[in-house]
Amino acid sequence: MNTLTIAIAKGRMGEKGVSFFNGTPYEIVRNGDSRRLVFEDKSGTINFIFVKSADVVTYVERGIADLGIVGKDIILEENKDIYEILDLKFGTCRFAIAGHKDQFPLKKDGVLRIASTYPSYVESVFREREQKIEIIELGGSVELAPLMGLSDVIVDIVETGSTLKENGLVVLEELDSISGRLIANKVSYRFKYDAIQEIENVLQEKVALNTAKAK
Ligand code: PRP
Asked: CA–CA separation, 55 vs 20, rounded Å?
């Protein structure tokens, strides 16, 4: 019988999350390129479900999944009632305010128009500031917004910085650091503490191994 359900984001981030279980008793059994969204691990202890990254936190908050692996960017944007229990230290990048370099220091007398795919996060960043803002929510390719005059600046993820550079933009202010995180449902964390602790220990070892390898 499966003891735990773990929600993992589909796509790039998710694949890295899956690799954390390789070589452990909880390795995911996947036969070929299936479109299935539910998989078991080798030991039959865990059910893995694959969902959109923003939905990982929803599944975990509502207790459908006991644990989740998701980027800190999603955790900050979704602001759900969950525990963040481990920094998995992959997919490392950061949030930043970016724009044309003559916009520094970042101030505008009127309303500063900010394009982003993370509207709630932007709101939280500017809540305590004097600057008036208008958030323009986009689905992606936000670097285009200041180039086309849709916004003054953007708030987005910067990893290598090459997307900004290729579009003639610069980081105006660095914000929160981002990486993959292990999250837990609050009730599961209490009532399935031992099982969760075991997974946490396995992942912690992997993090230590990856960190040692990177040195
Ligand atoms: C992300 C992000 C930036 C880019 C940053 O976009 O939104 O555009 O990566 O990476 P870099 O600093 O290494 O250039 P993603 O590729 O996920 O696609 P999107 O534009 O559709 O969001």
From this structure: 20
Residue 65 sits in a domain whose CATH number is 3.40.190.10
The whole domain housing 100 covers 93-177
Report the pocket of ligand 1 as residue ranges, CB < 6 Å: 140-141, 143, 156-163
Question: Cis (ω within 30 of 0) for the bond into 105?
Answer: yes
For residues 54 and 19, membership in a common domain is answered with yes
C-alpha–C-alpha distance, residues 165 and 154, integer Å: 14
Total domains in the fold of the chain? 2
Q: Are residues 124 and 80 in the same domain?
A: no
Spacing, Cα 99 to ligand 1 middle (Å)? 15
Tens-digit pLDDT profile for residues 128-160: 898 999 999 999 999 999 999 999 999 999 999
Q: Which residues of the chain, if any, have pLDDT below 70?
A: 1-2, 32-34, 104-106
Please report which helix (H) or strand (E) contains residue 214, including its range: helix 193-214
Probe residue for ligand 1, chosen from 142, 156, 166, 170 as the CB with the greatest number of ligand atoms within 8 Å: 156
What's the gap in Å between 152 CA and the centre of ligand 1? 18
CA of 157 to the centre of ligand 1 (A): 6
Q: How far does the centroid of ligand 1 lie from the alpha carbon of residue 163, in Å? A: 7
Both 21 and 79 in a single domain?
yes
